[in-house]
């Protein structure tokens, strides 16, 4: 026998979690005490629950495993709904653990602090942003309930919600049943693989398009092997930029429709058969296609279902499909004919003002000299700028598109991997969650942060040039780095950018905040093409 809190912590570890991010509260203090005294998983506390959720999501994405966010009831958990929504939309298996009032407190006949409409209002809110939920209010069923939701999180790669009343933390219970190996009908997977191969053989210019599920289910090496065996042009979606970066696959680039490079766009849009593996069909992945992908010539494997033009194979996990395809894959193209575009390098270090393409060259020069770094990017033009940086692991809100993940996700990557991340963030998003950098000193984190300061909500200004409300004040963020325990640089010329980046890379003692002053209106090449494509499509009435 053990206790519910201890059983939960050991289960999280057994199911693949490696750390917990959190902020306590009185409804969660008993659980946090067990986290600290048991030492089963390391605990990283941050300053604001959105940061907790984003950091846990990043750890999950980076390791293709469970991420864990522990919070208090009401004010804490409801503060974290947005990051959990991002995890749901972008298929991250994030485990939310919330403290809650004990049974006796509910019978007092009083409204409790942090309570909203009813005791289960929070539970109802989280039902909308998670794939499964459990309330651990019965020691007899708690182990099975924990196993159920953790298995669902891993199977569907979506967030789950666990509510732990504070009077149940030390309740005696059995251990949680061990994880189960994923079940799959190998015959069905083989039959599906054979039909895909037949479709590819019979088509002109077949191609592969890879999505986030390839990373979420830990399939990058196997998919890279499959792409090599098939010798077909292989692209990633906008959301999946960065997958396969650490593997030897015939990647031709990232498909960005009219906003991306023409060769990649044509390889995808003109494919006589396009196999989409783990791709989310969303506007940020396909919104600016020149030609709509003809799904009658496509095979789409997503959410454990494989769709053909007029029929489908249910219950085919992506891993089982990839394994079945690997067994029968044969060369169908000439992989030597394809290569990723060469990264743009050679920053001109002079007194000219800085533009996003200059930041691309500066980062690519840094990677060429010192090796690639994992990137965490916030929403904004910094994410479009990242598309031109050398392909490397990238976590970003590519679909849900919320501001705020940049800095916390960078911290989540470093907590999960020990690697020094490069963080890209706009001044608007930094105002939201950039202050989490103040937690670096406690944990020895030392990210390099590139803050794109165009003194405004630049992306919105692009669509509404004549508005004043998208302009922001110049907060002089670099001056705030030292009090937070880091080192700040303010760069307004390309020469200053080159110097700041070199100094920041050389100083691994703490976080490095490079505030890059960008003239208002200067945007990345990708955003420029994106805006042009949106305008072209709306002019053609093809919204
Ligand atoms: N609030 C949150 C939490 N997320 C959002 N995505 C938005 C509002 C709307 C929004 C954008 S892009 C953007 C906003 C406000 C401006 C971002 O400003 P900044 O971080 O400075 O980056 P940049 O100047 O590069 O735009 C998306 C379109 O919905």
Can you describe this structure?
It is built from 22 helices and 21 strands. By secondary structure, the chain is an alpha/beta fold. It has three domains: 2-173, 3-Layer(aba) Sandwich (Rossmann fold); 186-337, TPP-binding domain (Rossmann fold, 3-Layer(aba) Sandwich), CATH 3.40.50.1220; 356-528, Thiamin diphosphate (ThDP)-binding fold, Pyr/PP domains (Rossmann fold). Helix 3 runs parallel beside helix 5, helix 9 (186-201) crosses helix 14 (318-328) and helix 11 (220-230) runs parallel beside helix 14. The radius of gyration is 24 Å and the shape is globular. Bound molecules: ligand S1T. Residues 379-382, 401-404, 426-429, 452, 454, 456-460 line the site of ligand S1T.
Question: Main attributes?
Answer:
binds ligand S1T; Rossmann fold; alpha/beta; globular; 543 residues; 21 strands; 22 helices; seven-stranded mixed β-sheet; six-stranded parallel β-sheet
- State the distance separating the first and last CA atoms: 60 Å
| CATH-derived topology of the largest domain | Rossmann fold
Q: What are the segments in which pLDDT stays under 50 over at least 5 consecutive residues?
A: none
Shape estimate:
globular
As laid out across the biggest beta sheet, the strand order is 11-10-9-12-13-14-15
DSSP summary: helix tally: 22
Assembly status: single chain
CATH architecture of the largest domain: 3-Layer(aba) Sandwich
Instruction: Give the cofactors and ligands.
Output: ligand S1T
Radius of gyration, taken over Cα atoms and rounded to an integer in Å: 24 Å
Mean residue pLDDT: 95
Biggest sheet features = 7 strands, mixed
Strand content: 15-25%
**Range of helix content:** 25-40%
Number of domains: 3
- By DSSP, the count of extended strands is 21
């Amino acid at each position: 026998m053990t206790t519910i809190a201890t059983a939960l912590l050991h289960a999280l570890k057994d199911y693949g979690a490696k750390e917990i991010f959190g902020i306590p509260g009185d409804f969660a203090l008993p659980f946090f005490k067990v986290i600290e005294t048991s030492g089963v998983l390391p605990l990283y506390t941050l300053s604001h629950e959105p940061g907790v959720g984003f950091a846990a999501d990043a750890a999950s994405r980076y390791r293709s495993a469970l991420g864990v966010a522990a919070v208090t009831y009401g004010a804490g958990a409801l503060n974290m709904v947005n990051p959990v929504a991002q995890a749901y939309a972008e298929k991250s298996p994030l485990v939310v653990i919330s403290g809650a009032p004990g049974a006796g407190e509910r019978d007092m006949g009083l409204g409790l602090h942090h309570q909203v409409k009813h005791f289960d209002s929070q539970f109802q809110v989280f039902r909308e942003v998670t794939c499964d939920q459990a309330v651990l209010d019965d020691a007899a069923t708690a182990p099975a309930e924990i196993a159920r939701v953790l298995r669902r999180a891993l199977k569907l790669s979506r967030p789950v919600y666990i509510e732990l009343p504070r009077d149940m933390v030390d309740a005696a219970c059995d251990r949680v049943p061990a994880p189960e190996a994923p079940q799959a009908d190998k015959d069905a997977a083989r039959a599906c693989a054979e039909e895909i191969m037949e479709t590819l053989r019979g088509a002109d210019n077949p191609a592969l398009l890879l999505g986030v599920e390839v990373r979420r289910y830990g399939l990058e090496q196997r998919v890279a092997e499959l792409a090599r065996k098939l010798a077909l042009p292989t692209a990633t979606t906008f959301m999946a930029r960065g997958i396969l970066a650490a593997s030897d696959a015939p990647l031709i680039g990232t498909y960005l429709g009219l906003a991306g490079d023409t060769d990649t766009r044509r390889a995808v849009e003109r494919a006589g058969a396009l196999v989409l593996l783990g791709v989310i069909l969303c506007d940020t992945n396909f919104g600016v296609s020149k030609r709509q992908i003809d799904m009658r010539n496509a095979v789409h494997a997503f959410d454990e279902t494989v769709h053909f033009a007029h029929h489908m194979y249910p219950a085919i996990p992506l891993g089982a499909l990839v394994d079945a395809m690997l067994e029968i894959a044969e060369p169908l193209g000439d992989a030597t004919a394809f290569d990723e575009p060469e990264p743009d390098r050679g920053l001109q270090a002079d007194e000219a003002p800085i533009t996003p393409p200059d930041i691309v060259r500066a980062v690519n020069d840094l990677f060429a000299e010192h090796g690639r770094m994992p990137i965490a990017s916030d929403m904004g033009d910094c994410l479009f700028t990242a598309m031109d940086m050398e392909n490397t692991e990238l976590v970003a809100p590519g679909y849900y598109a919320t501001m705020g993940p940049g800095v916390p996700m960078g911290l989540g990557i470093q907590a999960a991997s020990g690697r020094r991340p490069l963080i890209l963030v706009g001044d608007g998003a930094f105002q939201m969650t950039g202050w989490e950098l103040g937690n670096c000193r406690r944990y020895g984190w030392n990210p390099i942060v590139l803050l794109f300061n165009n003194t405004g909500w630049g992306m919105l200004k692009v669509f509404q040039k004549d508005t004043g409300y998208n302009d922001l004040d110049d907060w002089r963020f670099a001056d705030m780095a030292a009090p937070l325990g880091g080192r700040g640089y303010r760069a307004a010329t390309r020469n200053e950018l080159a110097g700041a980046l070199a100094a920041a890379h050389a100083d691994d003692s703490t976080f490095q905040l490079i505030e890059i002053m960008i003239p208002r209106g200067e945007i990345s090449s990708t955003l420029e093409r994106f805006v042009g494509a949106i305008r072209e499509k709306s002019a053609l009435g093809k919204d």
